Amino acid sequence: MEVRNEQREVYQSGTLYTVCAGIQRCIREKRLAFDIAEPLDIYKDHHFNLFRSSLDSVLKDLYKRGIGNVKKQADVISEKLEEKLWDDNLLGDDSPKKLQNTLIFCLGLNHALHSGQEHKHLRPNTFEIF
């Protein structure tokens, strides 16, 4: 199976997944419009085994070829930028908001948290103070 755009270029894996998610959403909306209560999931229903198998094969091939595997990474925070945050009074311990900002900044910096999602999943029991 091969999937290409109008310029005959191979789609990236994320794009293919988004197209499939769009198909799933369209199916769900059409079934709701016709008052069909039973869900139909292209990722789980046995009627779509061949579809899933083909999609998995294409995604594995793209991965092997290095197409669409690039993870976005945040820029490293330089010492100069960190100093500016302190100098501009965005970090500090003289108010609850600044203390919160400082804790989040330091945790992210020292624990290499890459996204807001990773920060969001932090819990008090994640850390142990010795």
TrEMBL record:
Entry keyword Phosphoprotein: yes
Recorded superkingdom: Eukaryota
InterPro entries in the record: MAVS, ZMYM2-like_C
Location of the ZMYM2-like/QRICH1 C-terminal domain: 77-127
A Pfam entry, by short name: DUF3504
Keywords, in A-Z order: Isopeptide bond, Phosphoprotein, Ubl conjugation
Keyword Ion transport annotated: no
Name of protein: ZMYM2-like/QRICH1 C-terminal domain-containing protein
Originating species: Amphimedon queenslandica
